[in-house]
Design goal:
Layout lengths: L1 H24 L17 H17 L1 H9 L13 H7 L12 H17 L5 E2 L2 E2 L2 H22 L12 H26 L6 H7 L8
Antiparallel strand pairs: 1-2
Length: 212
């Protein structure tokens, strides 16, 4: 008698497991928002985007102050200060420094690029282009972030389009590495070129080495 109940129960359990596996393999889900479906076409969208970027800026607020003041003449660190702050004060910031995180800056820039690429500044309500103020504000925030990166790191990779895939991120990284390599070769190449006077350059059309 017990066997009669065990077999149907086992079959029911196997059926439920197979159904669960089928659900796991189903790639169609409403829990994801795809890039092409996410458009910023209302005043609330632009406002929320700007507020989100401002929230990210709070994350780099502390390092903005420290990177500026600790490298100035009006502030110094004591021997008991954290190693990360001592490195900043001594202009010898290591890769593992707590305040050395380019990723946070580029995260802000990427969100700015995304908002600028998706915002429709032609949206009009009561004869007002309601998304223009946030559009301008986000452009300003992006410029300020690039400025801080330039002051901190000296050289910055300029990106004005949103990175939305791993493939594009890898491509940009390879392009940046290639640019740095070519830049490092330029002084060596320049040293091998003949020196031509400005007068000679004008008469012969040789302009490549005239300014070197």
């Amino acid at each position: 008698m017990k066997l009669k109940y065990i077999i149907p129960a086992a079959m029911l359990a196997m059926a439920s497991v197979l159904t669960s596996c089928e659900d796991m393999m189903d790639l169609k889900s409403d829990s994801y928002v795809y890039d092409e479906d996410n458009k910023l076409d209302s005043a609330n969208d632009s406002l929320y985007s700007a507020m989100g970027i401002l929230t990210q800026l709070q994350k780099i607020g502390e390092r903005y102050v420290l990177m500026g003041e600790l490298r100035g003449d009006l502030m110094s660190v004591t021997a008991d200060a954290p190693v990360s702050m001592q490195e900043i004060a001594n202009f010898n910031v290591s890769a593992s420094n707590t305040y050395n995180a380019k990723r946070d800056y580029y995260g802000i820039i990427n969100n700015c690029n995304y908002a600028l690429a998706r915002m429709d500044t032609m949206v009009t309500e009561h004869l007002n282009r309601v998304m223009v103020p946030e559009y301008v504000a986000i452009k300003t925030l992006r410029a300020w972030t690039y400025l801080q990166m330039g002051l901190t790191y000296g050289r910055v990779q300029w990106i004005d389009r949103p990175i939305l895939s791993l493939r594009r991120a890898r491509w940009i990284t390879r392009l940046w590495n290639l640019t740095r390599l070519l830049t490092s070769w330029l002084p060596i190449w320049s040293a091998t070129q003949p020196t031509v006077s400005p007068i000679m350059a004008r008469s012969t059309g040789w302009t490549a080495a005239a300014s070197l």
